[in-house]
Amino acid sequence: MIDAQRFARLVTDAVVRRPRVWLLFRGPLRKMFDGLAATWETRIGPHHLWALDLALEEVPPPRRVLDLGTGTGVVALALAERYPEADVVGIDLSPGMIEEARRKVPPQLTSRLRFEVGDASALACPDGEFDLVVLSNMIPFGDELARVTAPGGTLVLSFSRGAETPIYVAPDVLRRELDTRGFTEFAEFSAEPATAFRARRH
């Protein structure tokens, strides 16, 4: 049987090439991550945020932040602490991951940090809702990213183990996909072993 990391890479490569096949993989991937939720944070280390932090250094403080593919909320919590004036929402396909994330929200953040179950290919969010959209080890759906990122807003994709991350998309692919959807000012960041990619919405 294919292991979780190999399956995640297979799905990522297939969906980036042909987004419509997501419908075939969505259920199995949700089930896989539900099964991993309870032990997920044993699989990530401090390097998980390194390149993301670099990519965020020059980003103006946002008011509305989306952490897409939030998992157990590690990145969403870090974003809520980094931007004390921002409202942050973490969205993930896996109900198990969202349950774990909700357990971790400290009382001082409950008014501006929330977690929701959702599908990144069809988000229940208004157009242009977010000033900052972050994906960490997450399959990007370009049309939805363009739709929910506000004009002038920032998109950051980070990969905690660079090209070795099971869910990974190469910078040249990201540039090509995002350029056709109104993103510019591309920049790449590296903090071994993590990498990140930043773009700005027209």
Describe this protein's structure:
The mean pLDDT is 96. Helix content is 35%, strand content 25%. With 202 residues, it is α/β, with parallel strands linked by helices. Helix 1 runs antiparallel to helix 2. It has a 7-stranded mixed beta sheet, with helices on both faces. It has one domain: 3-Layer(aba) Sandwich (Rossmann fold), CATH 3.40.50. It has 7 helices and 7 strands, in the order αααβαβαββαβαββ. Strand 2, helix 5 and strand 3 form a beta-alpha-beta unit.
How far apart are the termini? 44 Å
Relative helix content? 25-40%
Low-confidence stretches: none
For this structure, what is the CATH class? Alpha Beta
CATH topology: Rossmann fold
Q: Into how many domains do the coordinates divide?
A: 1
How would you summarize this macromolecular structure in one to three sentences?
With 202 residues, the chain is an alpha/beta fold. It has 7 helices and 7 strands.
List keywords for this structure.
202 residues; alpha/beta; seven-stranded mixed sheet; 7 helices; 25% strand
SSE layout and pairings?
Layout: H1 4-17, H2 22-36, H3 50-56, E1 64-68, H4 74-82, E2 87-92, H5 95-103, E3 113-117, E4 130-136, H6 142-148, E5 149-159, H7 171-179, E6 183-191, E7 194-201
Parallel strand pairs: 1-2, 1-4, 2-3, 4-5
Antiparallel strand pairs: 5-7, 6-7
Helix pairs in contact: 1-2
